């Protein structure tokens, strides 16, 4: 027979030993996470530095950095499961020992007031479960919002809304690296598809698009670009970026014989107050209107805007002297909604999603 008082101390020592091991695991994991966060922050800083290289083509560099970021961001699944299993077993033994101690020292009869003495056990259980969630989120931050503020997912590195939140970033240069280019493709004699092609798939921004020629505005579109890239079909890993993205902007249901066609693409970054304007000159070859030259990129100071509830873009002032922005709506909602309208026609919603060539 063990002496009861000594047995209590033995259980308490075992419990404190398990708590010490649990704390040591937490310290070890925190050192790993600290080193990983440092590497991820360095990669983000490299991408932000590239935003100031206006004359150089940094598209490939940005894509390689995004892939490198994902490699550092995602831990192998097996070590994560091992650590989580260890924490689960540790918590289970802690509860077992504490419950056994309470059972040994309990003296009847039972009354409901006795439950007051159990609140430290429930409080400690809550703390340990939160500790488990904290460790799990730091080891596997995928789809966890707890650490998105300083360990953002790889897809955030192509989000204009996220990148423009940094003070030291040139959003206009990053949009130029995406090379947004409008293309008109003839689907039938009386139907043309309007596409926006991006070499680097940047998203999470509001836009307004206008197509005009000598006769005036023929087509306009607006909305919010939001891209969801599918997983790699072979490995099943998430793809943070891709090449040659096509964003459907709308359909023109009539014959086109454009004279001196021009296109204007307004981008409304979240961290700015004036939109970025891309001006294109179009040429026709066979059944395609394309952009043969580099577009003119500028900041339109005649238009100011801000964002209100649910990430909705609201135009504050529109003092443009030309007619290209006269159909610009006062509000543009988010969540990937895209709409278009032909001259004299009704506004329609685009159902087709962006896709990769």
TrEMBL record:
Q: Tell me the domain of life.
A: Bacteria
| Residues that span the membrane, as ranges | 6-33, 83-106, 112-131
Which UniProt keywords are listed?
Answer: Membrane, Transmembrane, Transmembrane helix
Q: What is this protein called?
A: Uncharacterized protein
